[in-house]
Specification:
74 residues; six-stranded antiparallel β-sheet; 6 strands; elongated
């Protein structure tokens, strides 16, 4: 199995949101209020072969990608 973890940071700042490892994660919805309208962020995904740190044998991070939230949320 393959497990994924999503991390979101403010640009050049500390992590503001991170998921647990989730097996087979193909999408994720960030809870309302975690991200600020109009603000820019960076995100990446970690991929591992286990959700247990002791059992992990293979792990990799994606490159950082950026996005900007819409000014208004509906």
């Amino acid at each position: 199995p393959v497990f994924y973890m999503l991390e979101i940071r403010e640009i050049w700042d500390t992590s503001i949101y991170m998921t647990d490892y989730t097996e087979g994660m193909l999408s994720h919805t960030v809870p309302f209020g975690e991200l600020v309208p109009g603000k820019s962020y960076i995100w990446r995904v970690r991929v591992a072969d286990s959700s247990d740190w002791i059992e992990v044998q293979n792990i990799a991070w994606s490159e950082w990608l950026n996005f900007t939230m819409s000014q208004t949320l509906k």
